């Protein structure tokens, strides 16, 4: 059986590191893994989407509409945009952070209201304040690893396996903060 995970966010939020941690963890568990990164204007705060598929044998990294078992969303509007990709019975993990896209910044559009509530009414949604949790762990840039921790708790892969992967994936100088962020997310 194949698991389909979408990681969505805004450029600079660490979605690519999150996908590497996820991919490396499931590889270490013996799964075949395919990862595909789709960059929008990621350098300018635009949408970033990463697909991670794993199972006994995976042929394509792409997750089509209605196929995602889990959507890990680093930002509210990106979660809302990704909703059509979640399969029936899938789970959405959402950071409650709002990052205004360029049309909102320039005043040509309004940021949609009550996104978390709308998502919660539509699908199985876990909303977390990953920014505060990352701050508590020691670095606001660790939102990505907080969210990986929240997701990890929903898998059958033991905590220790995730922590081992973080130790081999994250640069040494950021290791302590990321291990703390993972633990914080796991325990949310």
Question: Could you describe the 3D structure shown?
Answer:
There is one protein chain. With 188 residues, the protein is of the alpha/beta class. α1 (15-28) crosses α7, α5 (130-137) crosses α6 (143-153) and α6 (143-153) crosses α8 (175-186). It has helices at residues 15-28, 76-82, 102-105, 115-122, 130-137, 143-153, 159-169, 175-186, and strands at 3-10, 32-39, 47-55, 68-73, 86-95, 124-128. α2 links the parallel β4 (68-73) and β5. It has a single domain (3-186), classed as Pyruvate-ferredoxin Oxidoreductase, domain 3 (3-Layer(aba) Sandwich). The chain has a six-stranded mixed sheet, with helices on both faces. The protein is 40% helix and 24% strand. The model has no long low-confidence stretch (mean pLDDT 93).
Give the class-level CATH name. Alpha Beta
Beta-strand residue fraction: 15-25%
Question: How many angstroms separate the termini?
Answer: 28 Å
* Strand and helix order: EHEEEHEHHEHHHH
State the gist of this model.
By secondary structure, this protein is α/β, with parallel strands linked by helices. It has helices at 15-28, 76-82, 102-105, 115-122, 130-137, 143-153, 159-169, 175-186; strands at 3-10, 32-39, 47-55, 68-73, 86-95, 124-128.
Secondary structure elements and pairings:
Elements: E1 3-10, H1 15-28, E2 32-39, E3 47-55, E4 68-73, H2 76-82, E5 86-95, H3 102-105, H4 115-122, E6 124-128, H5 130-137, H6 143-153, H7 159-169, H8 175-186
């Amino acid at each position: 059986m194949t698991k389909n995970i979408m990681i969505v966010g805004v450029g600079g939020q660490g979605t690519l590191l999150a996908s590497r941690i996820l991919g490396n963890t499931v590889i270490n568990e013996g799964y075949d893994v395919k990862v595909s990164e789709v960059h929008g204007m990621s350098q300018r705060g635009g949408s970033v989407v990463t697909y991670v598929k794993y199972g006994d044998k995976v042929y394509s990294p792409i997750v089509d509409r209605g196929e995602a078992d889990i959507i890990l969303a680093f930002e509210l509007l990106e979660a809302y945009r990704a909703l059509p990709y979640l399969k029936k019975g899938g789970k959405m993990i959402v950071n409650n952070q709002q990052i205004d896209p360029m049309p909102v910044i320039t005043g040509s559009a309004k940021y949609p209201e009550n996104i978390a509530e709308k998502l919660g009414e539509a699908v199985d949604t876990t909303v977390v304040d990953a920014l505060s949790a990352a701050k508590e762990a020691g670095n606001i840039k660790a939102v990505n690893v907080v969210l990986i921790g929240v997701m990890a708790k929903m898998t059958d892969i033991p905590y220790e396996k995730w922590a081992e992967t973080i130790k081999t994936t994250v640069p040494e100088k950021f290791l302590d903060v990321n291990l703390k962020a993972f633990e914080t997310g796991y325990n949310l």
